[in-house]
Amino acid sequence: MFGYWDALYFVLVFIVGLILAYLLDKWAKKSGMGTREVGEGTKIFISGEDPEKVIPGFEHLEGSYTGRNVMWGLTYALKRFFTALRGEHTGLLTDYVSYLIITTAFVMMVLLIWG
Amino acid sequence: MNGEAILPYLIIIPLFGAFSMPIVSLIGRKAREAWAVIISGATLAVASALFYSVWEDRGIIVYTLGAKSPLGQGVSFPIRIVWEVDLFGAIMVLMVALVSFLAVVYSLGYMKHDTGLDKYYTLIIVLELGMLGIAITGDLFNFYVFLEIMSIASYALVAFRNDTWEGIEAGIKYMFVGSIASSFILLGIALLYGQYGTLTMSYLAVKLAQNPTVTAKVALALFIAGLLFKSGASPVHMWLADAHPAAPSSISAMLSGLVIKVGGVYALARLLFSIYSPLAYKALRAYGYPYINMNTVGWAIIIFACLTLIIGNAMAVIQTDMKRLLAYSSVGQIGYILLGLGIGLAAYGSHTGEVALAGAIYHTFNHALMKALLFLIAGVVIHELGTRDLNELSGLAKTMPKTTFAFLIGAAAIIGMPPLNGFASKWLIYESSAIFNPILGAIAIIGTAFCTAAYVRVLYTFFGRPSERVMKAKDPEASMLWPIIILAVAIVIMGLFPWQISEKVMLPAAKALEDQLAYISAVLGGA
After folding, report:
1. Where are the domains of chain B?
2. What is the DSSP letter of B497?
3. Is the pLDDT of residue B396 over 90?
4. Are the CB atoms for A48 and A76 separated by under 8 Å?
């Protein structure tokens, strides 16, 4: 409906993209002011997480990059949404049953009124 | 090939295999494992032949238990249990048999250090049997029996590792709420039987179209609620996030890949299209007769679908437990399948509706492969490292390159990245939802944004700097690696021929599901 698609074209476009990225990288390195290849400049920035920093109690994680902060921006921006969602997932059996009853009642009401 | 002749073997083989398992186990461990592989392999062979037969003939296979014809002697209505397989059912059969076979092969290595394996292999084959029964049955009570066979095997398998509190707690919760949902479904069946006096789905469809009563609406509400629970749709998805991570990973692959599809979405689609039909609704409404408004039902499903795909995918973003993340991701993907199903109902009769339905069926199959792959990989990680905490899995790519690469394929496919199989099915759903209602299209895309965020976190961890813990890990043994490789290859190959699969298999399956008259006449014939 939205036009034609062939997966092989994607592979082709992907390869062209890789070549372009490589050429861009080459060009940037040649024309730039130079990249620091030792010291602080080589550190990877992962959402403010310093891989060298050791957090007390988490020594076993020292020197490892983890994905826990990668989506920091998203989780911080939607903090209230995620807090509300977490709050509903209580793990209590009674809550599970309540939701099942509520769902049944909702569907039955919809069907009896508009069905 | 005569599909009718081979259909009973789809039940006979696993049934025989499951009940003979304790006896075979007496011979020894190797014999038990070989028996499990032979039984699930033979079931896969029968399932493949059945699928090919249905696909080639584009027909419906009907098998009557205990007689040649489902109709009673001297009467013109069916009185016997019938099994009825159209292309939609055949796809489910193939999916169940394939993933179950791979899960059994994977278990050879994965469950090596566990005890009570005679029970394990019996239960895993019983679980497969229950799902196959649901996919082929044309009788409502027979459906319930298979649903319970499947559910009880699932409850037991979730709590299989009873040396930790997690499995037992999750199993008990799942069993308790699952039994309530099952009893709703049973109550729905009882109401329909009381009202119309038949349990044969096709004959019930005729009686329902002749006289759609309030009782039928109440029964429908009970079915929808019960089956939404079994599908893991929000807000009744919470059991899933407990049960699927707690089970052994081979079982998680079957629960997330198969059980919620066949026992939930497939059953719901069968009820909504083959018994309560939008076709009957349109015809009755046009002639001014009483009807059950399937448009409303479609919108109710759409509302639950939107909730499911947002909540499931969003909850996956904030998980630190790898298997729990995958479980929530399953909830999110069920949202897409339900969205396709809901639009298929609400836009019945239009090309949009047909494409949405084809997308839902396609995504059901694709997600079974993708989620089975991801859970099997999670199992490998647990097997090697003894943890599923994402914070402790940094740099896994260094020591487990094959496993990580397979995870990359699975994650990219589930996000919907071309050229992998998830792209095509998600595209069909996006496309049809955007045409049907642009707001629904936007909601589907937001769900995918959350889904991407969740998997990027895992991939970032795997490709990060190796932590000390992962340095000891290595890629798994052959029996665990091969199922992973087969699933990954299947995902890539299916991704390379998306429209061919869509046009040759999925769209005809959607048409078969929509064609209620063919479903009815296959059983009733000229009666």
Report:
1. 3-524
2. S
3. no
4. no
Q: φ and ψ at B247, to 5 degrees?
A: -75, 160
The full 3-state SS of B167-191, as one line of letters, equals HHHHHHHHHHHHHHHHHHHHHHHHH
pTM: 0.91
Q: What is the ipTM of this complex?
A: 0.92
Residue B415 forms contact with A (CB below 8 Å): no
Interface of B with A in 314-343 (CB under 8 A): 314-315, 317-318, 320
Taking an 8 Å cut-off on Cβ atoms, the answer to whether B225 and A100 are in contact is yes
* B297 touching A (Cβ < 8 Å): yes
Residue B521 CB burial class (10 angstroms; 0-12, 13-18, ≥19): middle
**Which residues of A are less than 8 Å from B464 in CB distance?**
64-67
Supply the angle between the helices B322-346 and B351-385 in degrees, to the nearest 10. Answer: 170
For residues B412 and A64, what is the distance between their CA atoms, to the nearest angstrom? 24
The answer to whether residues A12 and A20 touch, using CB atoms and an 8 Å cutoff, is no
| Interface check B217 vs A, CB under 8 A | yes
The secondary structure of residue B72, as a DSSP letter, is P
- Residue A7 has its nearest CB partner, among B228, B304, B498, at B498
User: Three-state DSSP class for A91?
Assistant: coil
Looking at per-residue pLDDT, the higher value among A30 and B425 belongs to B425
The Cα B367–Cα A48 span in angstroms is 35
